[in-house]
Amino acid sequence: MADALRPDCGAAVLFLGTTRDHEGGKRVERLFYEAYEPMALAALTALEAEATRRFQVASCAIVHRLGEVPIREASVAVIVVSAHRAAAFDAARWAMDELKRGVPIWKKELFVGGGDAWVKGHDLGGAP
């Protein structure tokens, strides 16, 4: 986070998405993320650039883990730096929402006592 801070900016927003222990009435033991890395990295880079442009912030950086993520650990971090807090909060929320909507990273929930389920994706529009 310290590398993201800038002397010309007074706001730095850090969002961490962590693994919770339940979903849909079931106890979650851990998550598992999978992606085609070149495509996911390109999508994250484009998302960072669009957030920076759209909200006129100084920078946006997004990191997403792949593989197993235990309960309480972070799977995604969004860091936005800007002159003022409103733009940083708005950009971070938008970036996270767009990441979940359109970045090709897939999440599987593994349940306590056995069983698992891939999380249903979001309609990207135009897909059959």
Question: Can you give keywords for this protein?
Answer:
single chain, about 130 residues, alpha+beta, three-stranded antiparallel sheet, 2 helices, 8 strands
What does this structure look like?
It contains two helices and eight strands. By secondary structure, it is α+β, with helices and mostly antiparallel strands. The strands form two sheets. Strands 2, 3, 5, 7 and 8 form a five-stranded antiparallel β-sheet that branches. Strand 7 (105-111) and strand 8 form a beta hairpin. The longest helix has 19 residues, at 37-55. The chain is elongated and about 50 Å long.
Beta-strand fraction estimate: 35-45%
Structural class designation: alpha+beta
Q: What best-fitting shape do the alpha-carbon axes yield?
A: elongated
Low-confidence residue ranges: none
- Rounded Rg: 16 Å
State the major sheet: 5 strands, antiparallel
**Into which percent range does the helicity of residues fall?**
25-40%
What's a concise summary of this model?
The protein is an alpha+beta fold. It contains two helices and eight strands, in the order βββαβββαββ. The longest helix is centred in the middle third of the chain and has 19 residues, at 37-55.
Ordered list of secondary-structure elements with their pairings:
Blueprint: E1 11-18, E2 22-23, E3 26-35, H1 37-55, E4 59-64, E5 67-70, E6 74-82, H2 85-102, E7 105-111, E8 116-118
Antiparallel strand pairs: 1-6, 2-3, 3-5, 3-7, 4-6, 7-8
Helix pairs in contact: 1-2
